[in-house]
Amino acid sequence: MKLGENERRRAAVVVLGDIGRSPRMQYHALSLATQAHLEVDIVAYGGSDPHVAVKEHKSIYIHEMTQWPSNPRSLPKILRPLLLIFKPLVQFFMLLWYLCVKIPAPDVFIVQNPPSVPTLVAVKLASWIRRSAFVIDWHNFGYTLLALSLGRNSRFVVLYHWIEKQFGKMANGSLCVTRAMQHELAQNWGISATVLYDQPPEFFRPASLEEKHKLFCGIDKSLRTPYSLQDCLSNEVLTTGDDNPNVTLFTTQTHTDISLKWNRPALIVSSTSWTPDEDFSILLEAALMYDRRVSALLNEDDLKREDVFWQEIKGGKQYPRLLFIITGKGPEKEKYEQKIAKLNLKRVAFRTMWLEPEDYPLLLGSADLGVCLHTSSSGLDLPMKVVDMFGCGLPVCAVSYSCINELVEVDKNGLLFSSSSELADQFMTSIVVWGRVLVSQERPRSEDESSGDADAQIDMLFKGFPGECDELKLLKQGVLASRSSVNWATEWEANAKPLISKAKIMYLDGI
């Protein structure tokens, strides 16, 4: 049977998760609608709003399933294995109802993996019932995520792995996110997959000065409100008495002229799902180290009058204040917010927030540095958040693991770290000069070099922030150069579209 016969011109995108927090599947839906000219049904949980381009597209229809309630902490341990069985059964029948009854029969189902159970089983059965092709987009492996909580030797993990592998082989086509994952699927799973690297869509770009000012005006009040102790941001409005709505922590508007403030804090952004596979304590420890090291380098007196102390910090005194804005939702957020509230930091401030989908790219496009704490459970996937940061021209410090170099190129678009100490070193260098001091610390010292000389070099390199940052500008240029060479639309056209068409032909020929 040929592709043109009995054409339905429809696709279904399946996510057993929050569609608003599944950017890659949103981009699939947009490409299916705009590049393949299909009607697209998204079947997923609600919770977070998808991007406005998805919500308002006339050919995309979102079907929100009822969210499974969060697992009660008071549940006795003896009953938890029953929950591991009951939950996927309920999800399985709910998926079947939506995929076989609630939506029109599609040409192809495209399903996000993980989660694998019961998603792959339900979609495979639905594809057989609806006579549709079945394509898996491998973001990671579900059994490795389950092993984080149960251990690799758990019987549930072994069974999960078997189901994921067997039903993965039944797909008519597979996409994956890295060459390392492609190799693993081919060698140990018997699955041939096409690599489709994550790429940012067009709305992830550097923000203009006007866009930055508008964003900062919108979030300025929350930025100036600390969790508990007074900090270097909340103190600014107290010491200056400046409550002008046209003046933010970063920008000033006079009539129609907008300018960046010379003593603004350095803005560092990190997006996290607040889960165990992202160790947020690394960032807290690194921030504490930065705060203590700067205080020691400047020989600051803790007995100094409070108002004088805050004024000196606001003035910069060679080392910038650091503002960390942490975005995202997840189970461990409250725990870390409580830890942040107990920190007594002078030059560092943390703020957590959840932004609208349209504001998140603006925040990335307005920042000085991105931090990624993602550590892959399989070691074979890449963090989408770094892709988004690169799309906005933002250099990144990322946790190092096996395949991260497929995305982050050291000294070209970012730096890698393995500990809080290494990340603190990068805070001391990267905001102004990035790799230069890091490299100088790693090379062997000559006998006449002393630690004092190194401190003097760091002190010299931080002078002039945020103006004279040539190395940072070069890194930003490197990020933008790589961004301009590829984009999601061209990658999807070259890799995903032919595979989806081929999967459908293979399925129809097999009927």
UniProtKB/TrEMBL annotation:
GO terms for molecular function: mannosyltransferase activity. Pathway: Protein modification; protein glycosylation. SUPFAM superfamilies: UDP-Glycosyltransferase/glycogen phosphorylase. Keywords: Endoplasmic reticulum, Glycosyltransferase, Membrane, Transferase, Transmembrane, Transmembrane helix. InterPro entries: ALG1-like (IPR026051), Glyco_trans_4-like_N (IPR028098). It is a single-pass membrane protein. GO terms for cellular component: endoplasmic reticulum membrane. It comes from the Eukaryota. It is found in: Endoplasmic reticulum membrane. This is Glycosyltransferase subfamily 4-like N-terminal domain-containing protein. It comes from Anisodus tanguticus.
